Amino acid sequence: MGKLALRNDFVLIQTQRGAWVSEISILRKVLEPYSGSIYFEYSIPRMGRRIDVVLLIKSVIFVVEFKVGEKEFTSYAIDQVWDYALDLKNFHESSHEQFIAPILIATEAIHADPVIVVTPQNDKLILPIKTDIALLGSVIENVLNFADGKVIDRSQWENGRYCPTPTIIEAAMALYNNHSVADISRSDASAINLSQTSEAIADVIRKSRECSYKSICFVTGVPGAGKTLVGLNIATKHINKTDDMYSVFLSGNGPLVAILREALTRDKVRRTKESGARIKKGEVMSEVKMFVQNVHHFRDDCLLHQGRPPIEHVAIFDEAQRAWNLEQTAAFMLRKKNTHDFNHSEPEFLISCLNRHTDWAVIVCLVGGGQEINTGEAGIGEWIESLNRSFPDWHIHISSRLTDSEYSAESLVKGLEARQHVTYQNELHLSVSMRSFRAEHVSLLVKQMLDLDIDGLDLLI
Q1: CB atoms within 10 A of CB 257
Q2: How far is CA 81 from CA 137, 227, 286, in A?
Q3: Which of 26, 163, 184, 388 has its CA 20 to 30 A from that of 263?
């Protein structure tokens, strides 16, 4: 109990403590005949979700979800334990080829009828099993009798990294395959601008890979110009299961991640139904999770595996100016991760994660301008300072507008003049707002008014 409490990242309330007591009491009796490993509050790599209990017994991974005090097996609870099992199967490398049995336990259920059935895909994934406490022991025994295979190596399983399965990669590619920025936006200046920016970044990725060097791109844009859209396009177009090419779109904005995932999931479900086929929403969501993730979960995964590079060679950071400074990051690491003397700002640490690759890597920073920087946020200047301080060999591709006043980086960008491999590109600026239909100069007009640029206003008007 003490270890669970110390490692708990969330507020520890009495109900959680009581649930742990009940779970430990139940499992102590049920698991007595077996040898294996048990993990309470297991955090699924990169998913930001915790499983009540994971059991490794012989050849099976049991994903156990307790509903302490519940009498019914609600559809929400069934979907919850099923999603956990899917996430382990799809994203945890050392779980890919193992039998996974999700078990839902309603501790006060009066009647349960456990059934053991594998999925139609025959992928060693068992459909959710509903049971009460009295039948839990027999459920575990029946699953073990059903699942033949080698005993799972505990050490190897624990060291498994985040790694999408080939089927998930195929699904993610298909999910976005028929979309392009030109299709999603309008056929006017905004579509041209979005395509030019996407092509410029794609060219940086291609050259970095061919020549084995590391690059970072700073993409600027007026409000509503489609920076997020460009980021999603880059993440989904640079995935290839045959040559170990992975990309990810990362955001620290939790609601945005949730909305993007939900929107893409609903779109896929709708299109599938219109074609006459059927698909579960949870399965589609697994596909989306591969390329739209929370930056804090990415950071925590890199912290857990110090020195090991992430599977992705391309990482897109949305609203990069909102990454934390050294003080905020160090305080968080001490308070939440019990990590003392952490001496990196969030930008420096995130660059260092991609820098672990021995061949190549590309970071794309999507930069919003004219926004108030909140307490603890570093601004885009910290990314540039981190590059100068710790990563002298990285190639830097900068939007030609990053020196504008609204980005608060003019002096730092000028400090790059003596550095090699610095390129300024007009294509890395999104100048046309998708919200201003056929009014491409509105954003420029507003900027010139705020900058008191009289000469520019005379030319524009």
Answers
A1: 23
A2: 18, 35, 14
A3: 163
Most confident of 81-90, 116-125, 410-419: 81-90
Q: Which CATH class is domain 2-158?
A: alpha beta
Q: What is the pLDDT of residues 223-257, one digit of tens each?
A: 777 888 889 889 888 887 677 789 999 999 889 89
**pLDDT in the model for residue 2:** 47
Buried-exposed string 131-168: b where 16+ CB fall within 10 A, e elsewhere: bbbebbbebbebbbeebeeeebeeeebeebbbbbbebb
Q: Tell me which residue has tokens 């002096």.
A: 411
Rounded to 5 degrees, φ, ψ at 373 are: -85, 125
d(CA 368, CA 220): 6
Domain boundaries, the chain: 2-158, 166-460
Is the pLDDT reported for residue 15 higher than 80? no
